Amino acid sequence: MKENSPLHPSRTSLLRREFFAAGGLGMGSLAMAAMASREAIAAPATDPSHRALGLHLPQRAKRVIYLFQSGAPSQLDLLDHKPLLNQRHGTELPASVRGGQRLTGMSGNQSSLPLVGSPWKFSRHGQSGAQLSELMPHLAGVADELCIVRSMHTEAINHGPGVTFVQTGSMFPGRPSMGAWLDYGLGRENDDLPSFVVMVTKNKGGQPLVSRLWGSGFLPSRHQGVRFRSGKDPVLYLNNPEGIDPDSRRSAIGALSRLHQIKLDQTHDPLVQARISQYELAYRMQSSIPDATNLSDEPESTFKLYGDDAKNPGTFAANCVLARRLAERGVRFIQLYHPGWDHHGGIQNGLPRQCRETDQPSAALLADLKQRGMLEDTLVIWGGEFGRTNYCQGKLSPNSFGRDHHPRCFSVWMAGGGIRPGMTYGATDEFGYNIAENPVHIHDLQATILHQLGIDHERLTFKYQGRNFRLTDVHGKVQHALIDPIPTVG
């Protein structure tokens, strides 16, 4: 192996030493020197990690806000009303309906699979007549903005693979996340903010959410998502160490920056280039992040619209307000994770609590974007990794029941970004167990999202280990029925 190869043992050791030496000084402070000599460290024109690939199609959406409900909300209690389940409450799931489908280890050994109807009422809302549960009264007020898809399906039956599949297009770890693909394909709109931001509702239990879900996989690391947290430091390790003023730090790091540049000139190592770019962004974020995350300049009407929780940093409501602020500032992909939907039991108490936390902020986000003229080019998505069963997991009692994982069918809703409003698409059978019409696979949803952003999902690829990879793997069809037709002139 050549000595100047990035994989040579001596070279790998040197990179590690450089990385830890740089990291000890803080990302923000390291970036000052990069800013001081920005032209000297500009990315080579041939570096693909610094070049947006451009649009393939007319762009209907400029940005995405993905309200991911981690744990899998029960579609049968929220978005897919099945009166037959109430009529047959407590009776056995017919074998002909199940069709031999594999079950999880949590209910696969049950001697009985009793059907369970929803205890919550459904009503029709808006001119579209969308059927929604009484647990979502605020969403009912914006029903005509929604495109409800009741025929989603996936191969994943457990949370880890399920969430990974939705976020990366593969059930196996290691692929780039959707936001990373978009940053790679479209680049940034705002050089002072990351184009891919992640927020997780604070103090929520549920399935673990790990950083690889918003990682860059085999794409250059600069495309990974940046997680924002509640508190005085929304981005970890961004600020200078205490006691270090900007002028002295700029002087100290100037030399280190020049050393980085020398090493880049010698090796053309993309890891060095990515590190320099991240330091640059980190320095700029030292001023842009406080401005974006400071909600004190929001009028009282904003908090009234999103609910009282919006004043509490880290709540889903506060994160929705912050998502709108980031969207205004050019952040392209904003991912909100709200855990706690994994109701294997105690659904009568757990599901209403989840809806109280999310219903008003979700509806408020749509209304807020619309009043600002942003909904038409902002695609908002709400949903989890799979659905819930029509039968009870464990023993069915008058006051308690739960639902197991169900990959065969589940519901999501979308709004804005050129998606057809006031529409319910797809249908499940009368038992809510199988898809009856217009199935939509995870890869179909991803292909449609990319299409609205102006990307042909088959052309957004990255060569890795001798193969061209893409978000939709080798599958996926754009669901044109979900897309609002572009009005013709004349």
Please tell me about this protein's structure:
- With 490 residues, this protein is an alpha/beta fold.
- It has a domain at 65-250 and 300-392 and 405-429 and 439-461: Alkaline Phosphatase, subunit A (3-Layer(aba) Sandwich).
- Helix content is 33%, strand content 15%.
- The protein contains 14 helices and 17 strands.
- The protein has helices spanning 9-23, 27-36, 75-78, 83-87, 95-98, 137-140, 159-168, 178-186, 246-267, 270-293, 300-306, 316-328, 347-371, 442-452, and strands spanning 63-68, 122-125, 130-133, 147-153, 196-200, 226-228, 333-337, 378-383, 387-392, 403-406, 410-415, 423-425, 427-428, 435-437, 440-441, 462-464, 467-469.
- Strands 1, 4, 5, 6, 7, 8, 11, 12 and 15 form a nine-stranded mixed sheet that branches. Strands 2-3 form a two-stranded antiparallel sheet. Strands 9-10 form a two-stranded antiparallel ribbon.
- β13 (427-428) and β14 (435-437) form a beta hairpin.
- The termini are far apart.
- Residues 1-51 have low confidence and may be disordered.
